[in-house]
Amino acid sequence: MDGYDSSFSSPLMSNLAISRKYRRKGLAEDLVKAAENIARREWGYDDCYLYVEKRNTPAIKLYQKLGYKSIWEDDSATTLLPTGDGRIANGKTTIVCMKKRIGAGLFGNLFG
């Protein structure tokens, strides 16, 4: 994994999920912004990280729109996937780690 560091010094978001019925209503964006606000205002962090599966292109586009930048990928990751008979099985996936500077004012994310 390029750039992987298991000791994050800032909050890490993972497994953000919105039910299909409620997608495309701005809820994911609201949740991410709320988490960023807590991380910055209540906990005093300047950066926020998140994990997303590479195949989840709508989520990646949302995070990029919100100012997150990809910092590394792990193509040896696994995830749980539903099978045809209703069970859950392990499957291969690629995890993307993204980072956003949340505490440097209006222009903070342009330079870091």
Give a description of the structure.
The structure is a single chain. The chain is of the alpha+beta class and 112 residues long. Helices cover 22% and strands 33% of the residues. The protein has helices at residues 27-42, 57-65, and strands at residues 12-13, 47-53, 69-82, 88-101. Strands 1-2-4-3 form a 4-stranded mixed sheet. The chain is globular. The model has no long low-confidence stretch (mean pLDDT 88).
Write the layout of secondary structure elements.
Elements: E1 12-13, H1 27-42, E2 47-53, H2 57-65, E3 69-82, E4 88-101
Parallel strand pairs: 1-2
Antiparallel strand pairs: 2-4, 3-4
Please outline what is shown here.
This protein is 22% helix and 33% strand. It has two helices and four strands. The protein has a four-stranded mixed β-sheet with strand order 1-2-4-3.
Q: How many angstroms does the end-to-end distance come to?
A: 21 Å
By secondary-structure content and strand pairing, the structural class works out as: alpha+beta
Largest sheet: 4 strands, mixed
Quaternary structure type: single chain
Shape: globular
Low-confidence stretches: none
Percent in strands: 25-35%
Features:
112 residues; alpha+beta; 4-stranded mixed sheet; 2 helices; 4 strands
